């Protein structure tokens, strides 16, 4: 009997997708690891049962090519699709370049929907699983990350509605509510944008652009937990990563003014912003 198959987007080394590829491979699955650049995941090439595919999730032609290649190798079935590819975007909402923000949504939202549409027949044939990598960013309000958080809120809603729509087709859907995990999302995405010269936030530009360290879960541990979740038959929202317990159970019951004060004090210098008289 052929092994189950999984396709994962965004598998550049050092990230969540890369760790998931290794974790699924260790469980004996046939893994299709994808990224825009094969060089960024070349260390996977020598491992058994891993096939590297060049895939730009924003390019319909690239997706169609991947669909055909996977279909040939699996006989037209795909057991698990993991929509992991994503980008970060840090910028005050007043200064957001809307065209760049649309590009962010192309990667974080529209690409996942297109991947599900294009692989739907293979997933249905396999009674498969869709795993959409959401984020706790979709349920908390962190200053200067409005576009990234909005894209994650969108993918969470899409994923949860798809869970209902695909149930009659025997396709299970998992919405990963990812907390803080060691990842290269900032490295593999576009370079951080600088503030325009007209920005009201120039006094705190250095703080906005600074890297912040949070209580992160090791990527390998995270991937191991997620693969166990997928293989055990879970569906719906699955919370994994650092700080998820706090966000899941404490934040909803926290007074708004308390949560706002926390967000302002720990976020990229907003508490240092001079007030306009």
TrEMBL record:
GO biological process: phosphatidic acid biosynthetic process; triglyceride catabolic process
InterPro entries in UniProt: NAD(P)-bd_dom_sf, SDR_fam
Single GO cellular component term: lipid droplet
Ranges that cross the membrane: none
Family: Belongs to the short-chain dehydrogenases/reductases (SDR) family.
Protein keywords: Oxidoreductase
Entry protein name: Oxidoreductase
Species of the source: Cucurbitaria berberidis CBS 394.84
Domain of life where this protein originates: Eukaryota
SUPFAM superfamilies: NAD(P)-binding Rossmann-fold domains (SSF51735)
